[in-house]
Design a protein that fits this description.
By secondary structure, this protein is an alpha+beta fold. It is 24% helix and 30% strand. The chain folds into two domains: 53 residues; 242 residues, no CATH class. Helix 1 packs antiparallel against helix 4.
Length: 305
């Protein structure tokens, strides 16, 4: 019996260390005022809109906000935070005018999820709760070409997906990566979408990130299902795995272009290092635990005969 108890004890420890908790995750999107006159939205074009999605492995919440020419980044971030808060509904406090800048804590049931939504200045941040730490994605898609990007830190999720869609508005898209290393900051390159196919645009963007001399690990993807929000990635994209010295990214396009950036924690099978998903790891460890118990009991039975 003592051996069985020890076996169970070691098995539980192995399970805890093999499947680490995933709380403390966050994701941020910022909207710099780099347009003419110190604004974020230069000209949204017809039907300019921004879609923002946050979610867990069990549930997603999406919201849309109109983009009006002349809008500063702080207002874009405020509108996005308010729209997400209202989209969650009764799980959040009442989110009206004046709620942001600030922070709200939202709790959902069926399934259980917790989110903290914060807006300070030009930045929207979402993080998971302590009771239900399941945040897995923040995705932002704008049809106005206005500058936005992932603000990255050590609490951020692992992967960043980037997509450029000219949407009939050809021209330059500026890509920036900010960092804490020495040398030029940000590292910048320009992609001219004119006359290029979807694949060519994203191959050039991948080469752009690779040429920056930073730990970004860029890979071209051609499968929308590799995103947590596949509708935002109807073609090619570039996936990044930023190093710890990366602080933020920016995409700055032409009015009317569709620029999408997503931060997620989804393991992409077949890209990069082979790995099991969290559920796969749990099933594997459970199998090992049960196998260990069976072997211990079998040995005890043999010793007693």
């Amino acid at each position: 019996m003592t051996r069985l108890s020890k076996g169970l004890h070691y098995s539980v420890l192995m399970l805890l260390f093999a499947v680490p908790p995933t709380w403390g995750k966050s994701a941020s999107e910022h909207f710099p005022d780099d347009g003419l006159g110190g604004i974020n939205v230069d000209s949204p074009g017809p039907g300019g809109v921004m879609n923002v999605t946050l979610g867990s492995r069990f549930q997603q919440v999406s919201a849309s906000i109109p983009l009006v020419a002349g809008t500063p980044g702080s207002v874009v971030a405020d509108d996005a935070a308010t729209a997400l808060c209202n989209a969650i509904g009764s799980g959040c406090p009442s989110c009206g005018a004046g709620t942001f800048p600030g922070a709200v804590h939202c709790t959902l049931t069926n399934p259980n999820n917790e989110y903290n939504i914060t807006q300070i200045g030009n930045t929207l941040t979402v993080s998971d709760g302590t009771n239900f730490p399941f945040l897995s994605v923040l995705s932002c898609r704008t049809t106005a070409g206005n500058t936005h990007g992932d603000a990255h830190d050590n609490a951020s999720m692992t992967y960043v997906l980037v997509r450029i869609d000219p949407n009939g508005h050809q021209g330059n898209v500026t890509v920036k990566a900010f960092h804490t290393s020495t040398g030029a900051n940000p590292r910048t390159c320009t992609i001219d979408t004119t006359g290029q196919s979807d694949q060519q645009i994203h191959t050039e963007m991948c080469d752009c990130f690779a040429s920056m001399g930073l730990v970004l690990n860029p890979v071209v993807l051609d499968n929308p299902s590799l995103s947590d929000v596949p509708a935002n990635f109807p073609g090619y994209s570039v996936r990044l795995v930023p190093g710890s010295n990366i602080t933020q990214f920016e995409l700055d396009g032409q009015p009317g272009q569709i620029l999408t950036m997503e931060t997620n924690d989804t393991v992409i099978v077949g890209v990069g290092v082979p790995a099991l998903s969290e559920w796969g790891m749990i099933i594997l460890i459970a199998f090992l635990v049960l196998s260990g118990i069976w072997m211990i009991r079998r040995r005890q039975k043999l010793q007693s005969t």
